[in-house]
Structure formats: C-alpha cells, structure tokens
Amino acid sequence: MKIDLTNKNILVTGASRGIGAGIAKALAESGAQIAVQYNSNETAAQELAQQIGNDSKIFKTNLKNATECEQLFDNVVNEFGYVDAIVNNAGIAISSPFSNENWTAEWDETLAVNLRAVAILCKKAIEHFKTRTAGRIINISSRSAYRGEGEEYLAYAAAKAGVVTLSKSIAKTYGKDGITCFVIAPGWVKTDMAQAYIDEIGEASIIKDLSLNRITEPKDIGPIVTLLASGLADHATGTTIDINAGSYVH
Ligand SMILES: NC(=O)c1ccc[n+]([C@@H]2O[C@H](COP(=O)([O-])OP(=O)(O)OC[C@H]3O[C@@H](n4cnc5c(N)ncnc54)[C@H](OP(=O)(O)O)[C@@H]3O)[C@@H](O)[C@H]2O)c1
C-alpha cells in the first residue's frame, strides 16, 4: 500500500511538540503540506516546519479564544488556498481537584481548549469541505473518554468524551457531503503532558498495565493518522481507534 499525500494541505493543531509533532512528521513524510499550529512554542514550531519541509508553515493561535480558532482556519485557507484534512490534536490537562480555588475557571479552560476549539474548527472545516465535497477530520481524544479519570481530571475526561460524540455526529451527518470523521484515543504517550505522571509512578509501573513492553510514543500515532488522512480508510468513518499498547486487553 502506497500513501501519497502530495498536494494535500493538512492543518495539525498542537503540532509544536508531542503527539502533534509526531503526526505532522508522518503526514509530511507522505508528502503533505502542513499548517503547524502552535500557541507558545514558536521556535519549536518553526524548527519543525523547516524540518518536515513541503513548504509547511506555522500558525500561532490560542485555542482558548473562540475568535482565534475561527481565524486560524481562515488564515490557513488564505495561505494554502484549500484544506484537505484537519487533525484536532492540541490539548491541555490541568490538575483540578475540588480543593482548587479556581476549579470553575479550570473546568471552563479545559472545555474551551479540549472541546469547544475542536467544535469550532470542525464547523469551519465542514463549511469549507462542503464547498469541495471532500474532507477528513481526525480528532484526538483519549482513553479517559472511555475509562473516566480521578477527581483531578474530571473536566479533561468529560471534554474528551465530548470529542468522541462530536466526531460520531459529524460522521453521521456529513458523510454524504464527502466528509469523514475519525477519533484517535491514545493511552499514555511519552510527551510533556504525561511526563509528570511517568516520573511520579515510574515507567515500569505503567508498562505493567500494557500488553507491549514500552510506553507509546508520538511516532506510534502518526502512521494511523496518515492512513486516515489518505482516504484509504474512509469506510471506517465514525470510528474510534484505540492506541494504548493493548492496555484494554491486558
Ligand atoms: N500524552 C498523553 O499521554 C495523552 C494521552 C491521551 C490523549 N492525549 C491527547 O493528545 C493530544 C496531544 O497531547 P500531547 O501529549 O502531545 O501534549 P503536549 O506535549 O502537552 O503538547 C500540547 C500541544 O498543544 C498545544 N496547545 C496547548 N494549549 C494550547 C492552546 N491554548 N492553544 C493552542 N495550542 C495549545 C501546545 O502548543 P505550544 O507548545 O505551542 O504551547 C502543544 O503543541 C492532546 O489532545 C491530549 O489530550 C495525550
């Protein structure tokens, strides 16, 4: 099977680091031009865009801000001419136990970045894809959408479950417009987001709960996203792909 994404323009949010950077690299290796969205790490985003090539470009957005989300999609269309696929990957994980003074604000911020921004970008993408009768949306959720979380990450798990339902609704509603939508639900992945937890409980302890013998890395997510973006898996629209080193079956 050959995957050629030459002349495909793909927006990847949160591509400056972690899973998003891994996804951007994999897509670009297959020839796609990437809109590398970032928030604070401009240097990392710029270095990545240069490294992956294909005339990829960086776009700064704070996805907490609804207007900036809308502007991001418009800016990418203005710059690239059209968009073939979007990968909604950017996310935050705020530890927010009930004792936190700012619990409500943290809940709002988590939902704004992890769910509302995804919804806005899906809306913008669907409007654009309808004019082209084609487009693919790949949303990065989490294993916690299915397993839930402890008190500190209630909002995170709720937002990630929302991403799953949002994606199913999109798959159900816009398939006949040529639009497909998929979810990736990773378990622990070795990135900045997971590092504090990995340090706290130790890699060996996490690996004990896996079927495989190492923790998932960003390079393990990119190839599946590339397959989904290629169109070769369109008949899986509405599906969620678990990438958790077999932790569900362990
Ligand atoms: N790591 C895991 O174990 C794991 C497990 C399941 C699901 N996930 C999900 O996978 C996705 C990527 O996670 P990761 O581990 O790669 O995270 P990460 O290493 O913390 O990277 C987060 C990315 O999101 C961007 N971002 C954060 N807040 C933003 C904001 N307000 N506006 C715009 N961009 C923002 C960051 O941009 P800057 O660096 O430029 O600020 C960065 O590129 C997230 O949706 C996460 O929930 C991760």
Explain this structure.
There is one protein chain. This protein has 250 residues and is an alpha/beta fold. The chain has 2 domains: 9-186 and 221-242, NAD(P)-binding Rossmann-like Domain (Rossmann fold); 190-218, no CATH class. 47% of the residues lie in helices and 14% in strands. The chain has helices at 18-29, 42-52, 66-80, 103-132, 144-147, 154-174, 192-201, 203-208, 222-230, and strands at residues 9-12, 33-38, 57-60, 85-88, 135-140, 179-186, 240-243. Helix 2 (42-52) links the parallel strand 2 and strand 3 (57-60). The longest helix has 30 residues, at 103-132. The radius of gyration is 17 Å and the shape is globular. The protein binds NADP nicotinamide-adenine-dinucleotide phosphate. The site of NADP nicotinamide-adenine-dinucleotide phosphate has 28 residues, from helix 1 and helix 7. NADP nicotinamide-adenine-dinucleotide phosphate (NAP) binds next to helix 1 and helix 7.
Short account of what is shown:
The chain is 47% helix and 14% strand.
Architecture blueprint of SSEs:
Layout: E1 9-12, H1 18-29, E2 33-38, H2 42-52, E3 57-60, H3 66-80, E4 85-88, H4 103-132, E5 135-140, H5 144-147, H6 154-174, E6 179-186, H7 192-201, H8 203-208, H9 222-230, E7 240-243
Parallel strand pairs: 1-2, 1-4, 2-3, 4-5, 5-6, 6-7
Helix pairs in contact: 1-9, 3-4, 4-6
Bound molecules: NADP nicotinamide-adenine-dinucleotide phosphate.
Name the descriptors.
2 domains, 250 residues, alpha/beta, seven-stranded parallel β-sheet, 47% helix, Rossmann fold, binds NADP nicotinamide-adenine-dinucleotide phosphate
